[in-house]
Amino acid sequence: MQTTPAMRRNTPHERRGAWVDRWLALRDRLLTSRTFQRKAAAFAPTAPIARLRARELFDLMAGFVYSQVLHACVQLEVFDLLAARPLPVSALSHRLSLPIEACERLVAAAVSLRLLERRSGDRIGLGVLGAPMVGNDALAAMVKHHTALYADLRDPVALLRGENATSMLAGYWPYADASVPGKLSSESVAAYSALMSASQPLVADEILDAYPLGGHRRLLDVGGGEGLFLASAAARAPQLQLMLFDLPAVAERARRRSAEAGLSERITIVGGSFLGDPLPTGADIVSLVRVIHDHDDATAMRILLAVRRAMPDGGCLLLAEPMAGTTGAETMGDAYFGFYLLAMGRGRVRTALELTDMLHAAGFDRVEQRRTRVPLQTSLLVARAAASGATP
Ligand SMILES: C[S@@+](CC[C@H](N)C(=O)[O-])C[C@H]1O[C@@H](n2cnc3c(N)ncnc32)[C@H](O)[C@@H]1O
Q: Which of 68, 77, 186, 322 is the most buried (most CB within 10 A)?
């Protein structure tokens, strides 16, 4: 006799799932009821929770305005100005070339967001969130380039439906959409390469603290941009020889920057596309920093396979990028990068587990995650090239 679903006894796991579903259905009914909302806000033990939830929802609704207040402060260089000393609003309005009322308005908004603070004598100083922005070219560059994302997100439903005729971000990252990325001009790679270099110091220290390079001989940075990650690695590991692979126009920029940094003797720079050209061999360690998340699964696999082919058995791979599902940084992965990469037109942020599976499929083993201090900037997977027989 065949067992029907009705006859099958539920497992403990299914029974627990059913209880959770019932509890969540009850919670939904309560939270959507206006009467419950009113009572919860008036009842002393639940009032703080009700206020907190209302505030969280308001902040979600208003978040894009807060971002623009930050943008105005960055564009006007308010933080650098006030780093020297706190100023009265009148002096600030003069220095910013803003009418006094407009300056008052900006200051009030920035004070409420803890970017600025009111000080004695009616002066305005840095707030706890504004102070870290001082001299921080990386954050300033990130904030400024959000103009493109902001425009692309104007109609998020159209974006989700793929109905946006143009994407400013795709223009900003031209390799995302290029049929022959190797042919991109130096003008088209200039803006994103400068942004990557400005923000690289935030990332390099995280990676190099989590994985010191003392035991390695030669590091190849694939998609290495203008070479800032390699320069940080070189400063920490004097024995290390360096190799960089990036699109020809970016490689040219890397050559100039490496010469300025006095690294020409230690570095080999190769221009090409990892989607068609072979990667240089000879490195015992390879890094992919903020590269894989830019690409859809099939392309990401092609890159990982190309990297594996360029490595000796047992060679080490560092895969560093923001990852989805990072505890404490869930919004960064799924909300921020989820929509950022959608607007850009390709790529996705993956969990450490998804990347681990891809690495295994590309011929790597012994994949382990190393803790980084600020996973908001980057997480890190370290993998070993499996013995050649195991390479797909
Ligand atoms: C998001 S940036 C990261 C740069 C650098 N690793 C960093 O973290 O600052 C991605 C890099 O991949 C490079 N890239 C994109 N497509 C490429 C391709 N087909 N071949 C080689 N490099 C490519 C870009 O030029 C860029 O430098």
A: 322
